[in-house]
Design goal:
The chain has helices spanning 4-18, 39-46, 125-129, 143-150, 157-161, 172-182, 195-214, and strands at 23-28, 51-57, 60-65, 69-74, 79-85, 94-100, 104-110, 116-121, 255-259, 262-266. The protein is of the alpha+beta class and 272 residues long. It binds a DNA duplex (12 and 12 nucleotides) through residues 1-3, 6, 32, 59, 74-78, 93, 110-115, 154-155, 159, 162, 164, 171-174, 218, 220-223, 240-241, 260-263.
Amino acid sequence: MPELPEVETIVAGLRPLVGGRCISDTEIHWSGSVGGMDPAVFRDRLVGQCIARMTRRGKFILLYLDGGDVLLVHLRMTGRLLLRPREAEADPYTRVIIGLEGNEELRLADLRKFARLVVVSQGEEEAVLAKLGPEPLSEDFTVEHLANSLGKRKAPIKTLLLDQTVLAGLGNIYADEALYLAGLHPLRRADSLSVEEWQRLHEAIRRTLEEGIRNRGTTFSQYRDGEGRPGGHQHCLNVYRRTGEACPRCGGPIERLVIGGRSSHFCPRCQV
DNA sequence: TTCGTCCTGGTA
DNA sequence: TACCAGGACGAA
C-alpha cells in the first residue's frame, strides 16, 4: 500500500512531532510484527532511548535512536504508523505500541499483519538499505541509470519498475501511473525501449511521484498519514483501478491485465 | 522468472 | 462464495 509518496507524507508529518521524544514503554499485541522478538527484550532494548532523527529510504521508515539503535519500519500493504494521545481510542488492528514521554504513543496498526518493525544496531541498517536502488527524486536517479540497469532485460517493463533494487519506492499504483504518463504499454519488454522512451519514463516516474507527494498520497481504504488523515491522490489517478472507465486522454476504456501476478491498468490506445 | 505465501476483510 | 487487495521474500 504505502509507496514512496505515502511513506514520505507520513515521515514529513511525524518528524517534527517525534524528534527528540524519548521512549517510555512498549507493548506488543502481535509478535509477528516485530519478527517474533520477545516483548520484554523489545521493551528493554528501546525504553530510555530518544528519537534523534526520522528519515525515509524507499518505502522504509527509519527512526535513529540516541542509544545506538535504529528502528526500521516497513508498512507493506496495510500498515499505518500513527501518533496518538495515550488516552485516544484504540486504533483497530494495533499490533505494536511505542509509548513516548509526554503522553503520546506511536502505534503500528496493520490489518493484514505484513508490516514489520525491526530494531538493529546503528550501522546494521545499511545492509538492508544497500540493496535498494536510488531514490527516484534524487540526483542519483538518472535516465542513464534506468536505461543501463534495465535496457538488456527481457521482462515486461511493469514488472521491473516494481523491483526495489532498480529504484526504491515505486509500487503498483505509481508504476501504472508512470507508464501511462510515459505512453508505454506495461507489457513492453524492457530491451525494446528506445532512448527517447527511457527519457519519457524517467520523467514520468518523477512527475507521478511528485504529484503523489503533493496530494499527500493515495488512499483506497487503509492508508492514513501519521496523524490518521487519508491522502488525496486517489482523485488524480489516470488509470489505476479505473478499469472500464474512460481514458482521460483518448476517451477509450481503461483495461486491466495481470502482469507478474500484479494487476496492471492501462489505456491500450495511448500506451504502446 | 514465476508462483506461493504471509494475513484479513471488502466487494461483486 | 469467489475474488481482489497498495509488498516482498523464498522456493522451484
